[in-house]
Amino acid sequence: RLALGANDCSASTWSLTDWTRLGAYPHCDIDIFDSGFDIRCVEFSPDGRHLVTTSGQLWAARIWRLEDGRQVGTYDYNGGSAFSLPARFVSGGRQVVLGVDGVVLD
Question: What is the maximum alpha-carbon separation in the chain?
Answer without folding.
Answer: 40
